[in-house]
Amino acid sequence: MNNVFDYASACLHRTDIDEKLQLTANAWQLYQQGELQFESLSAVQGIEHVRFPTQPELLAPRYMARRKLGTPEGVQAFYHALAHIEFIAIYLAWDILYRFRGLPEKFYQDWLRVAHEEALHFNLIREHLRKLGIDYGDLPAHQGLWEHAQDTAHDLLARLAIIPRCMEARGLDVTPGMIEKIRSIKDVAGVKILQRILEDEQQHVLFGSEWFYQQCQKQQRVPEETFKMLILKYFKNNKPKGPFNTQMRLQAGFSLNELAWLEEQ
Ligand SMILES: [Fe+2]
Ligand SMILES: [Fe+2]
Which ligand is located closest to the Cα atom of residue 83? Predict the structure, then answer.
């Protein structure tokens, strides 16, 4: 296998976790060696064909274990939730690459990098979880994260606005606070992992911003108006809530006007 879309298809349509990580690593290595093909030769299957592992069980948020860091179980639940976010992030990166064809090769290279980094994040957290005595899949996980991908499967601008520019951007807002909490329980290894993730995520959001602006230009739409319209449409008039990490969001390609609009309540 040497075509990026075959790797994407395998990662989205097969359920085995270790196989998915191995395929992602293989695709990245082939790309580094200059041997990965980016020609779109295969058909795209609808998003309803995407498959997830049988474990973890996916449930509504009210069924999640409490994530207070004061107890060992709370710490396990905290990292399990984080592992799940990174696991779904692998799917999200492969899915944007797989579903939207006919774009410049750089688009596919950027999201392949994201898939590769999300797999690294997942591996780091899973190793940490194992040291804490559980594995990914041992607790139930939040079923909601994939819904935004399903909602935006037909519209690249909406996908870019909602996934990298809202969901991943939220990570920039909340991760610094999480790092301080983890530091306060003297989890030095955990602090390092979260710092690494935060650094990478800024780049993921920047990719989202760059391709959002590129697509707006191509479709002759005003980026800031389009961003606002899409957020209101897909969040059903509930804007993302702050506080926002202004400095990191600016570095990740948000404009001052977009941030000012987000800050308005
Ligand atoms: Fe990540
Ligand atoms: Fe990410």
Answer: 1
- Express each pLDDT in 22-73 by its tens digit: 999 999 999 999 999 999 999 999 999 999 999 999 998 888 878 889 899 9
pLDDT digits over 165-224, tens only? 999 999 999 999 999 999 999 999 999 999 999 999 999 999 999 999 999 999 999 999
Find the 261 Cα to ligand 1 centroid distance in Å: 26
Of the candidates 55, 57, 51, 38, the residue with the CA atom closest to the CA atom of residue 11: 51
Measured distance CA(55)–CA(140) in Å, rounded: 8
Cα→Cα distances 20→13, 15, 75, 101, Å: 10, 8, 26, 22
Helix (H, G, I), strand (E, B) or coil at 84: helix
Query: Does residue 240 have a cis bond before it (omega within 30 degrees)?
Result: no
Strand, coil or helix: 52: coil
Nearest CA to 129 out of 190, 180, 175, 63 is that of: 190
The DSSP letter of residue 59 is E
Q: Where are the domains of the chain?
A: 65-263
**CATH T-level assignment (fold) for domain 65-263:** Ferritin (1.20.1260)
Among residues 218, 215, 207, 212, the alpha carbon closest in space to that of 251 is found at 207
This prediction has a pTM of: 0.97
| Distance, CA of 117 to CA of 119 (rounded, Å) | 5
CB 179 within 8 A of CB 198: yes
Measure 220 CA to ligand 1 centroid, in angstroms.
31
Ligand 1 centroid from CA 196, angstroms: 9
Q: What's the CA-to-centroid distance between 35 and ligand 1, angstroms?
A: 26
Distance in Å, CA 89 to ligand 2 centroid:
6
